[in-house]
Amino acid sequence: MHYRYQLDSSSKKFECPNCSKRRFVRYVDLENNAYLPSHIGRCDREVKCGYHCTPKSVVAYQNYEPQLAPVQEPSIPFENFEASFVSEELYKSTLQYYTQNNFVKFLKAELGEDVSQQLIERYAIGTSKYWDGATIFWQKDIKGEIRTGKVMLYNPEDGHRVKEPYNHIHWAHSLMLKKGLVEYFFLKQCLFGEHLLSKKGRKVVAVVESEKTAILMSYFYPKYEWLACGSLSNINKQLFEPLKGWSVRLYPDLGALEKWKEKAYWLKKQGLEIVVSSLLDGQATEEEQARGLDIADYMLKDTLCYQELMQQELV
Question: Taking a C-beta distance cutoff of 8 angstroms, is the pair 70, 8 a contact?
Answer without folding.
Answer: yes
